[in-house]
Specification:
340 residues, 8 helices, seven-stranded mixed β-sheet, six-stranded mixed β-sheet, Spore Coat Polysaccharide Biosynthesis Protein SpsA, Chain A, 2 domains, Immunoglobulin-like, alpha/beta
Amino acid sequence: MKTITIVDSFISNQEIESATLNTISSLKEINCEVLLVTTNKVPESVQSKVDYLLYDSRNQLFTSDDYHYFHPWNFWIDCGDFDSHNFYYSKQRHGLAVMINLFNSLLYAKNLGYTHFQKILYDIELSNDCLNWLKEIPNVCESELKKGLIYFNEQGDTSDVNGTYIFCEIDHFLSKVPIITCEDDYQKSMIKSFGFPKFLIYEKFLYHFLLEGGNDEVLIKNQEDFKNDFIGIDENGQISILNFDEKYQGCPTRITKIHDTDKYVIFTHNFSKSEIQRRIIVNSFDSTKLEYFQYLPSHSSWSYFNIDYIFESIEVYNGDNLLYKEIFSPDEIKNYIKFK
């Protein structure tokens, strides 16, 4: 058994560079042979730490509007005094690049003589317990005559593979999952499986081909097993602006509920790398319009203001340019903030 460790990282800011370096350094502590795969230029500080670098400048993203499904996307962010809980529908545009990067890596590693791979997220803090478990996984699979270890999130019809960590024999993986080199390959695989261009995000795509219907050739564990196996793991969870509708321009302004109350705020969170000022018009039913401004100086900055009166909608502007209008409909508002 010869194992390559695949780390996929799109290094676009100092935070991601630091997280990537930290993960690679931890992996090197247990003598992992690391293949960094990316669609962006890589600083010398990172290049010098890995054994192999695979760069695909095309950065292919999902662009078709033919898909019949958008992925419901939930995430929460610690904002100090409160947590921000967010709900969107996403096409996970960058998921195509993630798939292509994975298959490019597997074919490259196979040509280099590697028989197995482990893929791990770039932005996780690996405790000593985690590193000890990583060293043990190949032995566990070998002793149980299994070709890999796959964690999954058990959610009935919407179950998916846990993308934080995968270990598998390369040949087994390639025998189960269709190779994706472009969006046309992806669409053909979906039509072949479902009869129409259904959209599955990367994690659900892997679940469908690797685990759905059963797979007794690999060890299969759920999310609770993951927590027990990777004791003390810290997943930083960078949020990609590619997951958002383009109208938000990487900085969504949303009508947001205060948890366990009937009160609302207008909450803006900047996921872009730009300095942004939002102009927001709050429209009341009596045609009154009130103007507010929010300043988001940098990535991860946020701002909100309370709305303590009845209103009909908000209009969100970048300067004089109207980006979108959001109607106040309490039954449809899923975003909320929860004070600690």
